[in-house]
Design goal:
The chain has 9 helices and 15 strands. It has 313 residues and is an alpha/beta fold. Strands 1, 2, 3, 4, 5, 6, 7, 8, 9 and 10 form a 10-stranded mixed β-sheet that branches. The chain has a 5-stranded parallel β-sheet with strand order 12-11-13-14-15. It is elongated, with a radius of gyration of 21 Å. The protein starts with a strand and ends with a helix.
Length: 313
């Protein structure tokens, strides 16, 4: 089992990233010495960037502009299957962990506090239900892609460090992909305070359907949120996740489309003043918790709502 740390030296929270990973390593058992892979923009490394890394072996990955899409393309090609990948819990790390695990058919967990490894699987612990409980999760599908909890902060040892390889990364350009910027105010803050939320679940099957939902949300003036299956399928970024491990909302109105109503998700919408659910499964638990429910196909609901809003027959 290889242990790889992923850091982004192009972000202002670089020191915090190192501290998070150091904290998780202190609570990790049964693993080999880590190797750190550091993404950076050429000639823009912090002066003391090497001194804060919790690993002695470093691979430097130079890019013109570090973004999730570019890092994802590099890691998919470079990482071995038998690898445990540790990333910091920030916008870059959380989205990258989920999408990397999906691409490589591995496992992902966010905000991890401890890791234990045996020859077949790893067991991780993280806070659940709003931090009121500590849950244990066993992961079997490799590679394992984990983000260290923001609450962790480990000491950085004074060990010798060396750059064993420098790779100049030039991912293939894909005009259909728009790199995500991390400079503006995080979208999760808007989702948290939005008066109108449209939340989608596994009823949305692919990127094409997801784009239709995004357009629909814009047409009705709603902030878009998602359940965990949508995020884990890389159809939406982590900052749009609703629930105990994402954003807790309290809108005036929330419409859920294709959401089953798992407790972890429902905790994020239960304070809605008006909760409307649309799911073709009449036994879906979300129906019992909603103020109004529609048992039917979500796309039929979307089309009918468009007609009503446009005033057409």
């Amino acid at each position: 089992m290889n242990l790889t740390l992923i850091l982004n030296a192009a972000l202002p929270d670089y020191a915090e990233q190192c501290a998070m990973l150091a904290g998780l390593l202190e609570k990790t058992t049964g693993l080999p010495e880590p190797e750190a892979w550091v993404f950076c923009q050429k000639e823009h490394l912090p002066a003391d960037w090497m001194d804060t890394i919790p690993a002695s072996q470093i691979v430097l990955l130079e890019m013109d502009a570090v973004c999730v899409e570019g890092a994802l393309a590099v890691l998919v090609k470079q990482l071995q299957k038998d690898t445990l990948v540790l990333l910091p819990e920030n916008y870059f790390g959380s989205e990258l962990a989920a999408r990397l695990a999906f691409r490589l058919k591995g496992s992902a967990q966010n905000a991890v506090q401890t890791v234990a490894y045996d020859s077949e699987q790893i067991t991780v612990q993280r806070s659940v239900y709003g931090g009121h409980m500590l849950g244990s999760f066993r992961l079997k599908q490799r590679p394992f892609c984990l983000t260290a909890s923001r609450s962790l902060e480990g000491a950085i040892s004074a060990q010798p460090r060396q750059v064993i390889e420098t790779i100049r990364c030039q991912p293939e350009k894909n005009p259909a992909v728009i790199p995500i910027s991390y400079e503006p105010e995080p979208p999760a803050e808007g989702l948290k305070n939005a008066p109108f939320v449209l939340a989608v679940g596994r009823g949305v099957k692919n990127h094409k359907e997801m784009e239709k939902i995004r357009q629909f949300a814009g047409e009705i003036g709603a902030e878009l949120g998602c359940s965990r299956p949508v995020v884990m399928s890389a159809l939406a970024p982590m900052e749009q996740l609703i629930g105990v491990s994402g954003t807790m909302t309290r809108p005036d109105c929330c419409i859920t489309l294709g959401v089953s109503g798992a407790p972890a998700f429902y905790a994020g919408v239960e304070k809605s003043k008006l909760l409307i659910s649309v799911n073709q499964d009449e036994a879906a638990s979300i129906h019992k918790k909603s103020d109004a429910s529609v048992v039917g196909d979500l796309w039929e609901f979307v089309e009918e709502m468009k007609k009503q809003l446009s005033g057409s027959d």
